[in-house]
Amino acid sequence: MTQRNADEWLNHRLLLAEKQLQQPKQKPEHISNDWFLGIDLGTCNIVSIVIDKDANPIATRLDQADVVRDGIVWDFFGAVAIVKKQLASLQQQLGVEFTTAATSYPPGTDPRISVNVLEAVGLKVTHIVDEPSAVANMLRLKSAAVVDIGGGTTGIAVIKDGQVVYSGDEATGGHHVSLTIAGSLNLSIEEAETKKKQQGTEIWPIVKPVFEKMADIVKDHLKNYQVDEIYLSGGSCALPGVGTLFEQLFPKHKVILPSLPIFITPLAIAAYGMENDNES
């Protein structure tokens, strides 16, 4: 299969997901049996996306959440409540009942952690995949690395000849960026999160060392592999300066940072579930 272009194929779908959060939740004119639900239980956000057979987002939900830390669901009931709310909202808007979904997990953690949450709201988890591998699968990468910088972890997947040959994970991500902001500016974590989202350019000098550490982690994971491209994903990559920093620290690679990276992983989860569901 041909590798999908991040600018043309992916960014269009990420923009659709963003618009669906901003626009009134309208019921579609036609209901389809081909729609598929993907749910991403992140450290800072829980995102649910419904896609059609062409992987176009049909409806999107996002809630900020502090229920997952370092790949572990520490507030199980809080996570269940948010997923249940998103599921009910999607079903009301779309006029369908979802009984199945796909989800993901950071490499090196227990996949059952996410599965348990979805099963608690009555969903059958048909497919589960680690986060960077989901992105690699969606983009049909041939020789590349996917670096998924989420709220609590940084996941790395190496793809050779279209197959994931290595995946790893480190417990550092956007939450650690917020801790750095909070410590440097004497703010609460909540205030630091707000400042990170609203004043990214201003606080970049404070958080740059954290991302340099992440880049060093990525270098260590990639030291035994030769790849041509590095794809960045995850909500933490949206901070101004991340893409440029990786370009500077990985001069021999083509670094690709799609727009609205917060939606890449949930879109990839849904796409992985749909594609594998059709093959089964």
Task: Give the key terms.
alpha/beta; 9 helices; 5-stranded mixed beta sheet; Nucleotidyltransferase, domain 5; 280 residues; 12 strands
List the helices and strands and how they pair.
Blueprint: H1 6-22, E1 36-41, E2 45-51, E3 57-64, E4 68-69, E5 72-73, H2 76-94, E6 100-105, H3 112-120, E7 124-130, H4 131-139, E8 143-149, E9 154-160, E10 163-170, H5 174-185, H6 189-198, H7 200-222, E11 229-233, H8 242-249, E12 254-256, H9 264-279
Parallel strand pairs: 1-6, 6-7, 8-11, 11-12
Antiparallel strand pairs: 1-2, 2-3, 4-5, 8-9, 9-10
Could you characterize what this model shows?
α5 (174-185) packs across α7 (200-222) and α7 (200-222) runs parallel beside α8. This protein is α/β, with parallel strands linked by helices. 44% of the residues lie in helices and 24% in strands. It is built from nine helices and twelve strands. It folds into two domains: 6-129 and 262-279, Nucleotidyltransferase, domain 5 (2-Layer Sandwich), CATH 3.30.420; 135-259, ATPase, nucleotide binding domain (Nucleotidyltransferase, domain 5, 2-Layer Sandwich). The chain has helices at 6-22, 76-94, 112-120, 131-139, 174-185, 189-198, 200-222, 242-249, 264-279, and strands spanning 36-41, 45-51, 57-64, 68-69, 72-73, 100-105, 124-130, 143-149, 154-160, 163-170, 229-233, 254-256.
